[in-house]
What does this fold into?
Amino acid sequence: MSETNPMPNGAGTACGSCSLNRAANLKRLGVTMDDWDYVVALAGNPNVGKSTVFNSLTGLRQHTGNWPGKTVSRAEGGFEFAGKRFKLVDLPGTYSLLSTSLDEEIARDFILFGRPDVTLVLVDATRLERNLNLVLQVLEITDRAVVCVNMVDEARRHGMTVDDRQLARDLGVPVIPAAARFGRGIPEVLQAISDVATGKFECRPHRLHNEPPAIRRSLNELVTRIQDMYPDLPNARWVAMRLLAGDDHVHAALRNGDLGSAGMHGATGGRTESGRAV
Amino acid sequence: MNADQADAGAESPAEDILRTAQRLRQGITGDLHEYWVEAIYADAARIADRAVSRPEKKARPTWDRTIDRIVTSRLWGFPIMAVLFTGMFWITISGANIPSGWISNLLIDRICPLLRQSADAVGFPWWLKGLLVDGIYLCTAWIIAVMLPPMAIFFPLFTILEDYGYLPRVAFNLDNLFRKAGAHGKQSMSMMMGFGCNSAGVVATRIIDSPRERLIAILTNNFALCNGRWPTQFLIASVFIGSLVPAYLAGFVAAASVTGIAMLGVAATFVISWLLSRSVLKGEVSTFSLELPPYRPPRIWQAIYTSLLDRTLFVLWRAIVFAVPAGAVIWLSANLSIGGQSIAEHFVNLLNPIGLLIGLNGVILFAYVVAIPANEIVIPTILMLTVLTTGSTAMGQGAGVLFEIQSEGALRELLHSGGWTLLTAVNLMLFSLLHNPCSTTIYTIYRETGSARWTAIATLLPLAMGFAVTFTVAAIWRMFT
Amino acid sequence: MENVSLVILASLTAALVLLPKWGLIARWRESRRMTEKCRREDALKYILKREVNGQTPTLNGVAGALEIHSNKAAELLSEMERRGLISFDCGQLRLRHAGRELALHVIRAHRLWESYLADQTGVEEAKWHHLAERKEHLMTPDEAEELSARLGHPVRDPHGDAIPTVGEELAADAGQSLNSAPLNAVMQIEHIEDEPETVYAQLSAVGIRPGMRVCVFEKSPERIRFWADGQEHVLAPILAHNISVIPLPESAGQDLFDEEFLAGLKPGQNARILGLTTACRGAERRRLLDLGFVPGTSIEVEMVSPGGDPTAYRVRGTLIALRREQARLIRISTSEAQPL
Ligand SMILES: Nc1nc2c(ncn2[C@@H]2O[C@H](COP(=O)(O)OP(=O)(O)OP(=O)(O)O)[C@@H](O)[C@H]2O)c(=O)[nH]1
Ligand SMILES: [Mg+2]
It folds into this structure.
């Protein structure tokens, strides 16, 4: 479908000076997406620059603002990179995937059941510890993720540096430093997304080591049970945890048999390669 | 494939797991969620520690801190808020006059006659020419001339403030009042979105976690003056209120009166929230948390660019979409007559007694009926109908034709001849604040609450308040004059 | 003429009285049926509670619990026996299988509804029990299950009682009354009896909740003085009787007396978070945890709103504003604070 015309800001016309131009492969597709190869979810804490990244990748103008909660419903857009078409979904910011407010639920359900092929998690370099809370939760669910450490300009101003290689080693997924507001790091993010989506880069996501002792026994028992039934499930422990916590959605997913395929894409490798896992 | 097998194997494995989970859950003492979050944070802290290197001596964000201390201080917090917002309105009012003049000069004085001529040249019948040029075109041109300049100034200013990170501080300052009203501090964020567009404001209430407080925020969002209503306020304030004082003070006084109306809206928000939380939405205030982001230098050009493109043009587009049919309706209602009187006049005469009772008039009320789809067209409708009912054809080209705004003076003259007084102006400003939301907002409220009852309350409550307030003001006014 | 209107009047009256669904008789019968149902279920609840606590249920007990005359109670019990809910074994009241199931369901519905009121509504605490007393008779097992799922399958209700699951036994009341607690030992509140309502309302008004750690240091026939949540409480023994407590190991109670709360922290001071108190429940608790208010975190007061209420705290690199009611739910320690 490559003959589809790019949208107004397509093909680098709008952005002459920014570093995106170097990524000559990028074609912003705006909202004209009727067909795509990969779905990318854009998750992260509130106010870390998700919509800014979304805009620079798709050429759309999703509203941004310096306050948490600017985006409250999901927005979709597309781009083409290295000959593949990606659908990018901008999600409301969430502190965690365990909570219950409406905007957080939208984000959570998409990461869980929306079958993203890659989840791009944005973190704020100046408050890495807090943001890693969400990253680790995402990595419990999916094993195809890219972490983008945004706002490195601000971190530098405060005299902080983030060692992205160390972080990548610890997390087991690509980690890209960026300053989305100035277009820095975006080409590298693109490359990383494409590598993970096509399977060129194999993620070995960090999983929690120190399960709380009070629940270890119950958790292990349930995990064994789940693994017996669904040997391919990549996140049996997370599912077990949610079941113990009485999560309605996961219950329902288990009942409907969604757990084997939808959302838990590790089992099938996403929609494009869904035949492979048979 | 695995999933299919699980599906085909049906019920039992899944049910078995669920039962096991249920059994194990009973055996866990303490809060599972808590254990899990603690474990994750422990890992996060360890990983972050290894990856981040901080300077030996803490480079404190002292600049942020100083600003925060000032804008949230007991002494300066509220004055700074008032000055910032009044300043914004002042820049908007005094800055919008000149380009408004240019645009109306271009669209109405220059292009309109050309259109008339070409219509004549092509040989349109009088009614088609009237409908197209005097009805649709003029109404639309008017809206562009009146709305574009203030919005093109107001929105970028607001976006810059938003980009800087000031809005959450407003929420922080106001939360105490919201708490006392039984509402959520984040309601001030949705309220500020409502200053742009109530429909967007209603959607923005999603950031409020608790259903009760969210409903309060939805029901009171209409008290935040929106796009469609700012121009009414700006225009009436500068024509009637600003003219009360010497010219050099006019801009300031007009801005102050608009701020006053906006503040009244905020006050109404508090009062109604308080009443709701004491009556139908009784209950305790639940959880509140608000993150205050660091200040960031606003991107001025981007703010101008995006707010022009998105907000201004979007709102303008919406106004025009509604103005086209409204222009046609107004022209038709002014030119089709039943029993010797035009339809518009019938309606106006019907509504006149009520209108006069509450210090307005039939024209204004009829305009608000026509403007249910979009508040933006209130002013053009009022002007067209005033021309019609006063029969002051001197200013325009016949019944129901929008005239040129040569100057504020001319506008004032016209409205005076339509029986307007200062009371009419003040009450129009009040009624523009307190009346039913536009149809888009009503629909959004229905979508967000999923309840016809709450939608009806959200629609009728402000309308009832509007009648009550304007009636009281008129009664008091008449007592003293 | 007169006749006609008389006929109309008569038939209208008849309709008002006799109409199958809306008529007075039908309504009266419906409400009677409902009262009967409530009574039966309440009686079952009473019998089950006595049984699990090792006490024998009696006819007079039923009459007392339901506040009805004993003749009426006898009638009720024989009706229940006819329905196969209970049996009289040589004068001994016993639940039969169907009766036990029904009683469990009613208790489950009651406790679930209380959890719902506590976690997801703003209804004040004193009303929970009363509302649940009515709701428990109206819920079907499926509805109860649905509610349970919506609440994330809670294990305990806000009074600290276990919520029985389908097909499970009811647990016996654990713990001893606060009146009989040993002096100077650290105990934990396991359960607060929600009847009579006035007593419960008083206890909840002074902030006493299940899960709280308490230490009694004076007992006399007039009053009981104890320490809990960073302050001293004084209660009359009849009130204290409704609080049941279980002992805690010595180690769990060391810091009880120097407990501090975030609300007490002054601008510029910093502290370390010890945890959230048990009064912080449901969505609020989850939200605070997700925001990083977890044990061990350093916290500092950054600024106070002009109105004096929300206060902004610096936690893990972010400014987060909380209201005082919430800051009161967070336990801290200033002595162990590390500089941020
Ligand atoms: N200094 C700096 N600021 C940035 C950067 N990226 C984004 N911002 C700013 O951060 C603020 C938040 O950006 P958004 O894109 O709206 O954030 P978001 O994650 O979509 O926020 P929510 O929709 O509320 O979850 C805006 O003011 C941006 O201008 C960056 O790399 N450096
Ligand atoms: Mg966003």
